[in-house]
Design goal:
The complex is a heterodimer of chains A (about 270) and B (about 170). Chain A is an alpha+beta fold and about 270 residues long. Chain A has helices at about 10-15, 25-35, 35-60, 70-80, 80-85, 90-100, 120-135, 150-160, 245-260, 265-270, and strands at about 145, 175-185, 190-195, 205-210, 220, 225-235, 235-240. Chain A has a seven-stranded antiparallel beta sheet, with helices on both faces. Chain B contains nine helices and no strands. Classes of the chains: A alpha+beta (about 270), B mainly alpha (about 170).
């Protein structure tokens, strides 16, 4: 890294900690450290921290690859959502993101990010949806604010407040009928919850709130009593929640996803 | 299994390790890896032929992490007290007590230092690779590495900031 006559510097020290210093510079460094017990201790400590970090993260790298990260499974999910990747808005976003991801060769620089805890956007939607589900599905007297007999009014009202067209998806093929819905606060703005039930009285909710950023794939979350599929599309977060297992809930979520797909060309016009 | 599947799946253990180092949470880390793989699949034909696949994937994952943090901080209405302290540059006293988990200590560092400590110290990327991935000169990588390590020593409560003197 440095020419052989250059004095020992901080970069040499870092490279020495990483065991990347070779030949003459390494000998120089060793000679330097022999004279400097403080720095020697510091090197040992930095190496201990590095080893601790490696050891801490080793487990996850040794684990078998989870099913949901198998490429075949990811491709399977994508196939179901192919249409939205082809919409012009997504395509433009895709090109932009490819530029961003590929752009590191060109020297793209990110502003520093403060160390806030990382929570994916779909998890925010899922958490809000689960809270709303838990709050209102146990209601006997007032499970919904406007019931299905006023569906046209309900839909118009919620669409107006959310700022997007919001029709109640028909889930009768899964045995669910619309009970009604309500407006509630979520994600820093208005959110909507539509509630369905089946003949056994099991309730399912569909939750919608504004959520910025690019579209995501389905995310599954298994709670104690209920499970949720959440995704983000067209600037909104969607979540389908019920006390069902993953396999039972997935076709419902897919059906809801398709019912909210914009008709061809809509994305350009808006 | 296709060529792409094989090539991508070989990288999954390391991607999961990096994602866990960044996010500290198993579930969140795998969400991040899943997003990264989705991106990689959708842009497979746009990737630089003959380029370093591993570096490409790590750069995608890091970009996703950063943009999620940004979305998150825009959305955040409340912030944990420990995070406020950490962003002021003072180590979180909790972390000092909780030295059993080094990830808690690492999480007190700014992303740029955190990533470099992980990419160099755990993933064994060369300094040159990391400089390219982050789009910064190699000297910046070295100084962030040095600052990151020093901060970790301070947080873990054992180290004094020792400065190495230039020997003339």
């Amino acid at each position: 890294m440095n020419s052989r006559d250059a004095p020992i510097g901080e970069d040499d020290l870092q490279a020495f900690i990483d065991e990347r210093l070779s030949g003459e510079r390494r000998s120089m460094m060793e000679a330097y450290l022999a004279q400097s017990p403080d720095t020697r201790e510091r090197v040992a400590e930095d190496r201990r921290h590095r080893d601790a970090l490696r050891a801490r993260l080793e487990r996850v790298a040794r684990e078998p690859i989870p099913m949901r990260l198998r490429i075949a499974n990811i491709q399977e999910t994508r196939r179901g959502q192919r249409s939205r990747w082809l919409s012009s808005a997504s395509l433009a976003a895709g090109i932009f993101l490819a530029g961003a991801a590929g752009g590191w060769f060109a020297g793209s620089v990110h502003p520093p990010v403060s160390p806030t805890s990382f929570i994916p956007r779909t998890a925010v939607v899922a958490n809000d949806a689960i809270a709303a589900h838990q709050t209102f599905t146990v209601e006997v007297m007032h499970p919904v604010e406007v019931d299905a007999s006023n569906e046209a009014h309900l839909v118009q009202w919620l669409s107006k407040r959310l700022g997007r067209r919001l029709a109640a998806p028909d889930l009768s093929q899964f045995g669910y009928r619309l009970m009604g819905g309500r407006l509630l606060p979520g994600g820093g703005g208005p959110a909507a919850q539509l509630m369905y039930d089946d003949v056994g009285g099991k309730r399912l909710t569909l939750y919608v709130q504004a959520a910025g950023g690019a579209a995501t794939a389905f995310r599954f979350r298994q709670g104690k009593n209920e499970s949720t599929f959440a995704w983000i599309d067209q600037g909104f977060g969607f979540a389908v929640t019920a006390a069902s297992d993953r396999n039972a809930l997935l076709p419902v979520a897919e059906s809801v996803y398709h019912s909210f797909e914009e008709p061809e060309g809509r994305a350009i016009k808006d | 299994m296709s060529d792409m599947s094989t090539l991508l799946e070989q990288q999954i253990p390391a991607l999961r390790r990096y994602a866990l180092g960044l996010s500290r949470d198993d579930h969140t880390a795998d969400d991040l890896v899943q997003d990264c793989l989705e991106r990689a699949i959708s842009r497979w034909f746009l990737r630089r032929q003959g380029g370093d696949l591993r570096a490409w994937l790590f750069a995608i994952l890091r970009n996703l992490y950063i943009s999620s943090c940004r979305t998150q901080s825009r959305r955040a209405t409340s912030m944990a007290i420990e995070e406020i302290i950490a962003s002021d540059g003072y180590p979180d006293p909790e972390a000092r007590l909780e030295t059993r988990d080094i990830l808690v200590a690492l999480d007190q560092l700014p992303e740029e230092q955190k990533s470099i400590l992980l990419l160099v110290g755990v993933e064994d990327f060369t300094y040159e690779d990391v400089a390219r991935m982050l789009g910064v000169p190699i000297g910046t990588v070295m100084s962030r590495l040095s600052r990151g390590r020093q901060r970790l020593r301070t947080i873990l409560g054992t180290g004094q900031p020792t400065l190495i003197r230039r020997v003339k």
